[in-house]
Amino acid sequence: MELPAGLLIALQSANKVLVLTGAGMSAESGVPTFRDAQQGLWSKYKPEDLATPEAFRKNPQFVWDWYEQRRSMISKVLPHAGHTALAELARHFKAFSVVTQNVDGLHQLAGSMDVTELHGNIMRSVCSRTGKWIDNELIIGSTVRPPVSPHHPQGLARPDVVWFGEALPEQNFNHATGLAGDCDVCLSIGTSNLVQPAASLPFLALNSGAVVAEINPIPTRLGQLAHFSIRSTAVDALTAIVGQFRVG
């Protein structure tokens, strides 16, 4: 695909690039969205039955089992060419940061080094009382579901993800807002830009003077304001950027 010349020029002159990714990025690897994962036994349940602190307190084994199923599905997928393209692009800039709403760890698996996870990582577990990480060996070796936390006598292991009704990790979000306010180019990829507060980041970059490009097959409200709106999948657009950026 042929990319807008202005975007390539902006990238070639940029020092600091920020990439924001959402569910559309992971979906191309075959990661089921939250709704897609609510199938079979789980199809009759609402998100608040599966992904809230209240649901976990009410029935921790039920919630833990659903997330174990989701972890199993995610463990079978691999990064796609778009993930790899981002890791390749990073080598050409003074600063190249990925801020993601995805919880699957595919950016890191593809080789991206500077990744900020806004919604956590489903492959990790934390204590339900203290929020401290729990070693995966303890999780694997446990005979109860969910495993008992080693950090608090009343604590249980829970997925290290942000549930409905919970705030984003403050340190991570503050770091992301700093990146958005200081980048030269911002790429928003595969996100609807509807879920707050993450949705505010590309607009912060735009208001701070960055060149903003949206990559999404589906129009969003960001596309009306962004300098470039590319109606494409992440794989097609990012592999094109890598190929055409090298030429420049």
Main sheet: strands, sense, barrel: 6 strands, parallel
- Percentage of residues assigned to helices: 25-40%
Radius of gyration, in angstroms, nearest whole number: 19 Å
Distance between the ends: 16 Å
Averaged pLDDT:
93
Question: Which residues sit in consecutive blocks of at least 5 with pLDDT less than 50?
Answer: none
CATH topology of the largest domain: Rossmann fold
- Indicate the structural class: alpha/beta
Strand order of the largest sheet: 3-2-1-7-8-9
Describe the structure.
This protein is α/β, with parallel strands linked by helices. It has two domains: 5-30 and 79-119 and 168-247, Rossmann fold (3-Layer(aba) Sandwich); 32-76 and 122-161, SIR2/SIRT2 'Small Domain' (2-Layer Sandwich). The protein is 39% helix and 17% strand. Helix 7 (81-89) packs parallel to helix 12 and helix 10 packs parallel to helix 11 (200-207). The two termini are 16 Å apart.
